[in-house]
Amino acid sequence: MRSRPHDVAVRATIDRARRLNLCGFGGLLTPPPANLPTALALADECYGARFARRIARFADVPPRSLVWTRDTDGLFWLGRIEGPYFYDAQDEAAAVDLVHVRPCTWLSTPLLESGVPAAVIATFGRGGRNFQQTHDPNVGPDSARIWDERT
Question: CA-to-CA distance for 135 and 150, rounded, in angstroms?
Answer without folding.
Answer: 24
